[in-house]
Design brief:
Elements: H1 8-21, E1 27-30, H2 36-45, E2 52-56, H3 63-69, E3 72-75, H4 84-91, E4 95-99, H5 104-107, E5 114-117, H6 122-134, H7 136-153, H8 156-170
Parallel strand pairs: 1-2, 3-4, 4-5
Helix pairs in contact: 1-6, 4-7
Amino acid sequence: RLAAAKDITTLLRAAQIVIRKFPRALFVVVGDGEQKQQLSDFVTANSLEKNVKFTGNVPYTDVPAYFQACDLFVLSSAWEDTPRVLMEAALSSKAIVATDTTGTRDIVRDGVNGYVVAVRDFETMAEKIIYLLEQDELRHTFASRSSAFVKGAFNESVLVEKLAGMWHTTANLT
């Protein structure tokens, strides 16, 4: 969604830095929304047309193909409820660079399966993207850890056990 909450401008500012090091890098932004024209204008004003593509809305069934095509996933949100897209990226075995918004640290373990950066910190975001693009082995390690972590931590039986444990502790039954 191209909305204020997603703070795509931070991603585009990071892209400007990444492109200096990787001139052929391609940033694909999936979705549509009220900020489409503003973001398109930013891309044009900063000569990013060759490196940034907006897909518009895509059918949900096509989203896995976008995950498969990318080297890593970046979430630039300024705020979120629960970033389901991070779980989708992790299950797609992608290394992740994400802003430190609600729910991010539930999925991204900084330095283990990706990197967590401060909201609106496009310089650190770019630094982490560049580092992962330079470090193929680390990027692949993070990717496999992402998938394994989410499959383990969000397994239904694990979640039920954690919830039951919380209720037992809260009710002083343990």
